[in-house]
Specification:
The protein has a single domain, classed as Glutaredoxin (3-Layer(aba) Sandwich), CATH 3.40.30.10. Helix content is 32%, strand content 26%. It is α/β, with parallel strands linked by helices. It contains 4 helices and 5 strands; from the N terminus they run E-H-E-H-E-H-E-E-H. This is Thioredoxin family protein.
Length: 109
């Protein structure tokens, strides 16, 4: 029997758009698909940052089941990392990216 691993990223869907936009502070959203290898790697990187950056709201959304979120932030294909501060997107990264680049953005936004 397989054991389900709990993610350190809050799972969000289209119905939570208002909640994401009303959050004060920085929210980092990973939009990926279960079949996306780069998205799986990025999930691990972001989960590693959750204990260091406790004030950041780290979330994950499935690109295919959350099309409104993808459209709202103009993300055309997964994976993508969206940096949303006080309800406004301030940075978007698409495709594979290094942990160092993500951390640069976490400390500069």
């Amino acid at each position: 029997m397989a054991t389900k691993v709990m993610s350190k990223l809050n799972s969000i869907e289209d119905r939570q758009i208002a909640e994401v936009l009303s959050h004060q502070g920085l929210t980092v959203i990973l939009m990926s698909s279960p079949w996306d290898g780069n998205g799986i790697i990025l999930r691990g990187i972001l989960e590693g940052f959750t204990s260091r950056y406790r004030s950041v709201n780290f979330c994950a959304a499935d690109y295919e089941t959350s099309p409104r979120l993808a459209r709202l932030f103009n993300l055309l294909s997964p994976p993508g990392i969206l940096f949303v501060k006080d309800g406004e997107m301030v940075q978007r990264i698409t495709g594979p990216v290094s942990a160092g680049r993500i951390e640069e953005l976490l400390t500069s936004i």
